[in-house]
Hints:
The chain has 205 residues and is mainly beta. Helix content is 8%, strand content 22%. The protein has two helices and eleven strands; from the N terminus they run ααβββββββββββ.
Amino acid sequence: MIATVGVSAAIILGLPATMSSPAAQAAPAGPTMPVEFDLARYTPVDPDHYRSLAYADNGRSFFTTGRWMCQVGPQYRYVGCQGRPATAPRNTLGAAIAGDQQGPWWVQPGLGEPTYRFGSTTGFRPPQLRVGQRVTIGGVTCTVPRADTVACRTGARALIFTPGWHKFFFPAWDTKAHSANPAPRYLPPRLQYWNQLPASPPPPK
């Protein structure tokens, strides 16, 4: 009888040990793979279709999603995407990752990147990378999760562009060699906690 009374009292008093579930509100224990880089969701396509053969393009590859234009190269793990999400600074031309060593950086006129050019210099027309497809070129993998979204990853660095927001990923030790993410309130809940990608599975080479 005493045990029964004790349990009833606990229920009546609403003791936190039995009535709350703080784990349900906690942040993930570590980075999880965003759906934008879950490659099993996407169909791979032939990278040669996107490569310009013109000498002046210096081995670069280009694609468009309809809203965004991205280019890969000329060096290994170099990628840039042209366009301005709503959370980007004014006058932004796009963002770029340099060799998995720096970035993503905003590309803006007059801010130290005047030589970065988006698009072919020879008139090469970027083919479309369609929703549900992915392409891997020179250590860079890009996906098109939705009609208004593009995502590109090198190794430990990545970017996601949507009309309403952007998300940048970079190594935990890197506190300077990248541009900033927007305040968490502008991002989907699944992207608010971590600025790093999980180590496994490794990115394609």
